[in-house]
Hints:
The complex is a heterodimer of chains A (about 325) and B (about 300).
Chain A: H1 9-27, H2 34-53, H3 57-64, H4 72-79, E1 80-85, E2 98-105, E3 108-115, H5 121-126, H6 134-150, E4 154-160, H7 167-171, H8 174-187, E5 192-201, H9 202-209, E6 213-217, E7 221-223, H10 227-235, H11 241-248, H12 252-257, E8 263-265, H13 276-293, H14 300-312
Parallel strand pairs in A: 3-4, 4-5, 5-6, 5-7, 6-8
Antiparallel strand pairs in A: 1-2, 2-3
Helix pairs in contact in A: 1-2, 3-11, 4-13, 6-8, 8-9, 10-11
Chain B: E1 26-28, E2 35-37, H1 38-43, H2 59-66, E3 73-74, H3 93-104, E4 110-117, E5 120-127, H4 138-154, E6 158-164, H5 172-176, H6 178-191, E7 196-204, H7 206-209, E8 218-221, H8 232-239, H9 250-255, E9 261-262, H10 265-279, H11 293-298
Parallel strand pairs in B: 5-6, 6-7, 7-8, 8-9
Antiparallel strand pairs in B: 1-2, 3-4, 4-5
Bound molecules: zinc ion.
Zinc ion (ZN) binds next to loops of chain B.
Amino acid sequence: MTNYLDFERPLAEIEGKAEELRAMARQNAEMDIEAEAAALDKKAADLLVSLYKDLTPWRKCQVARHPDRPHCKDYIEALFTEYTPLAGDRNFADDHAVMGGLARFNDTPVMVIGHEKGNDTKSRIERNFGMARPEGYRKAIRLMDMAHRFGLPVITLVDTPGAYPGKGAEERGQSEAIARSTEKCLQVGVPLVSVIIGEGGSGGAVAFATANRVAMLEHSVYSVISPEGCASILWKDAEKMREAAEALRLTAQDLRKLGVADRVIPEPVGGAHRDKQKTIKAVGETIAAMLAELSDLKGKKLIEDRRKKYIEMGRKGLAA
Amino acid sequence: MNWITNYVRPRINSIFSRREVPENLWTKCDDCGTMLFHRELSDNQNVCTSCGHHMSITPRARFKALFDGGIFSEVAVPEPMADPLQFRDQKKYPERMKAAQKSTGERDAMLVATGEIGRTPIVAAAQDFSFMGGSMGMYVGNAIIAAAEEAVKLKRPLVLFSAAGGARMQEGILSLMQMPRSTVAIQMLKEAGLPYIVVLTHPTTGGVTASYAMLGDVQIAEPGALICFAGPRVIEQTIREKLPEGFQRAEYLLDHGMLDRVTPRTKLREELITIIRMLTGQTPAVWGDLPAPEAAAATPTSAT
Ligand SMILES: [Zn+2]
């Protein structure tokens, strides 16, 4: 069953009709509906192309949050071998919103870390909808440290609505955990590449995405605040999220212009969830390309590359 | 320390018109409701003389009380690109900026200065909550980088007073990028072996708390300061329960191991001097009214 987004309603109607026709034909062998159904298919395909050709920033947010979108776990399973999860922050708990561990990427040992949102009610709750608690960042810090000591490249996959606004998370110092994780990203003497695969939600994303190279999927977003949050503060009306999404410039395309994203990875027509395999393959190729770009840099040079990138970031605005 | 009126402040200090407040005004304490004579309140660094409640203080007023003889020189902050996203909500961002500049007399939400405290040379940076909620954008990032560079150049510790509602939304992702940017600045300091002391003041929230404000060698907070990443209202909406009394306040964070100390504003200067002199291997401070730095330089060593 397809999960349609609100702006895909006309598409849902056409695809629904085609489905209905075919169901009727299965009941009644004499009916010849194939021509009609094929015409509907064609109409749906055309509509999908036109809907996704020029997605508004708010629609991109919706696509980035699509429940069927490939998540961290899907990428790890498809792109890495010998994935060996490493758990815990050695202090309080293991945070299931953050996956991480040793793995091989194209046979090379690496450390992979990412936010996982879950794909059904049970796993979503277990993963806290991809919202890390302090333990998640502290686990990531521990793994990045290990990667640094053993010379393993770090690959991060970012997909989080943001840090978890909970009582315990605050009590256990999530500000400090995020700050230290960002700091650790800037300290590791190994290549650090990051892909925003869905939502890059504020500090929770920065804590993993402060990288030598950052790629974003075509319909992923990366923002200082959610459009709803921004709308409720600046417009005093959370329903103004469309305007806020527009103003925040949170799309991969705008972030590429601002120099925050180094690459934009094209998605299949209709979004990553309509062809997961193709999307995952494209992400894998981009990770390989980003690591290859860094292959001449070693140790301190990688740290310098990262620092220089962030110190210089934002010198040019959108106009440039 | 009345002799200060005899000295001319460094020129750069007076580029912006200071907020002039008529001296016959009374201010009501937000906490205990006592009417406080304005002069009395400002002499006490905006701390209520009746209940000890800490009201907000501008960077300039803070520096005047902090530095020896009220003398400091501003460190120039590179001007960032104005309105990089061409942001507009109900108002255009440049209009909001102009209004904030007019009402505060400041360029943006952070002031950086060098000077001495108890004859101890430091670089200080203070965030201005009255300027768009102290929010962190490109300018604040540039200010922190400038402060760190100055500290490294002069081999001085950096004392940073944080106060912010968080990131400046009108600069979108570029405000978020000040988290890694400011972190790089702090790393430059640490690698140079220089102390970095953070004084968290009310309120310090969001991306500011989750970057440079939590990376100090020593973390001090003013009493009652709200310090958090997610604000109490957002948390109450998420978990749908009432938060305990004092949640996310300085004293609460101290109890939970997130701070070294909670120190009243009126005791801060002394404490900073003591800590910095130990961290930098200097002799104990000489307390009491010292002659102004220029005067001391002119007369041969006899006072110390
Ligand atoms: Zn009072």
